[in-house]
Amino acid sequence: MIRSPHLVLAGGGCLGNLYPGLAVAKQLSQLCPKLELSFVGSGEPSERHEALTVCHNYLSVPAQPMPRSPLEGIRYLTDNAAGYWASRWLLGEKNASLLLALGGPVSAVMARAAHSRRTPFVLLEANARPSRTARALGGFAEAVCLSHPESQTGMPVETPLVVTGTPTRADFDGVPRLVAEHAGQKQLLVMAGANGKRAENLNRGVVAALTQVPQQLEGWRIVHQAGQGQLQKVEQAYQASGLDALVVTQLDEIATAFAASDLAICRAGASTLAELAAAGLPSILVPDPAAPENQQAANAANHVAAGCAVSAMENASEPLEIGLSRQLTELLTNDLRRAQMTKASEAISRPDAALRIAEICAGLLGLGSVRAAA
Predict the structure, then answer these.
(1) How far apart are CA 201 and CA 138, in angstroms?
(2) Per-residue confidence (pLDDT) for residue 342, from 0 to 100
(3) What is the 3-class SS of 32-90, one letter each residue?
(4) Of 119, 107, 47, 100, the residue nearest 80 (C-alpha)
(5) pLDDT of residue 372
(6) Topology alike, domains 6-168+351-365 and 186-348
(7) Helix, coil or strand: residue 146
(8) Fewer CB atoms inside 10 Å of the end CB: C or N, the chain?
(9) What is the pTM of this model?
C-alpha cells in the first residue's frame, strides 16, 4: 500500500509561530486532501485547539528558549536534549516526508533532529535578523523562506534562500479595502500582547503617554488589548487618568479590529508586522526587550525604514511614555503622514506568502503546483 506523503509542521510557543504554518497547511490541504498534516508544538491548550482546525494530528515535545539565568540554563539543557531525542523518534514513527520548521524552540529541536535523521526540512525565517537555528542549519535545508530581502545578508552563502514573506491568517484577505472604507471616529488600537507579565510595562507606558496628549486624542476612540491578567489594572489606570477606553483581555476578531483602526501601538513580532502590512495599518512599534536575540528591535527597524511605522524603545535612555507621547503627538493629528504609512505598508505586504511556501513544500513532496490546482 502506497502511503500518502506526511508533512510535519513544527513551531508554537506563541501564536506568531503557529498561524503562518496553518496558513501554509490550508493551501496544501486544498491541493492534496489525502496529505497527512501533523503539528508539533509546545503543548499549550489554545495552540492545540488552533492546530487541530487544520492539521490531523497534534503532538508536543519539550523545548526551551535560550536561557537568561543559570537555573534556566539547566532546564534548557535537559528539556532540549529530551526534545531532540523525542523529535528523532517522532519523525521516524510518523514516517515524516518533510518538516516545515516555523520558528521558536520546538522548531529548533525538530530541525536539528530532522538534519540528523536526514529528513528533508524547510525553514521559515520570519524575522529580519536570522535566528541561530537558521544560520546554523540553513545550509542543510531544502529551502529557507525569508520574510525580508535584507535577511539574506545574515545567512551563510550556501543557504538556499527564497524571499516569500510571512503568511497571514485568511481573515486578513481584503483588509486594506475595509480600511479604505472606514469612516467616522478615528480608532487607536493598543495591542500589548497575550503574555500578561511581558505586557505590563507596555500597558503602563501607553496609558501614561496617552495622558500627556489629551488634546490630540480629541475625535479618537481607544481600544486596548491588555493581555492575560492585566484587564483590571489597565481599566483602573484609564479611570485614574480620566480617559475613556474599551479595555479587553484578548481580541477575538483581530482582522476586524485592524480594519476598524487608524493607528496601532504594538510589539514588533514578525507575524504582527505581516498582519499590519496586510491591513495597511500605520503603527508605533515598541520592540519587546525580552525577545530572543533582540529580534523585535531588528524587525521594528526594518518596518520603520520601509516607512510603515515609527518606534519607541522600552529600554531607551528616556522613559517609554516620553517616546510614545512624542510619536503620538504627531501621528494622532497628521492624517497625511498616516496615509503615507498606509501606502508604504501595502507596498511591502505579501498576500501570496502562504501560497509561495506551499508551492515549495508541494514540489518537495511531489505534489505538483498549488497554483495549477487552484
Answers:
(1) 35
(2) 95
(3) CCCCEEEEEECCCHHHHHHHCCCCCEEEECCCCCCCCCHHHHHHHHHHHHHHHHHHHHH
(4) 107
(5) 38
(6) yes
(7) strand
(8) N
(9) 0.91
Architecture of the CATH domain 6-168+351-365? 3-Layer(aba) Sandwich (3.40)
Give the rounded distance of the alpha carbon of 193 from its chain centre: 11
Confidence class for position 16, pLDDT limits 50, 70, 90: confident
Contacts with 181 (C-beta within 8 Å, 6 or more apart), sequence order = none
Q: Which parts of the chain are beta strand (E)?
A: 6-10, 36-41, 57-60, 98-101, 121-125, 143-146, 161-163, 186-191, 220-225, 246-248, 263-266, 283-285, 309-311
Q: Confidence class of residue 183 from pLDDT cuts 50, 70 and 90?
A: low
Fold for domain 186-348?
Answer: Rossmann fold (3.40.50)
At 180 the pLDDT is: 46
**CA angle, corner 153, sides to 149 and 155, nearest 5?**
105
Would you list the domain boundaries of the chain? 6-168+351-365, 186-348
Burial per residue of 120-150, b for 16 or more beta-carbon CB atoms within 10 angstroms, e otherwise: bbbbbbbbbbbbebbbebbebbebbbbbbeb
pLDDT of 373 reads 38
pLDDT (0 to 100) of residue 155: 86
Work out the mean pLDDT of the chain and round it to a whole number: 90
What are phi and psi for residue 99, nearest 5 degrees?
A: -110, 130
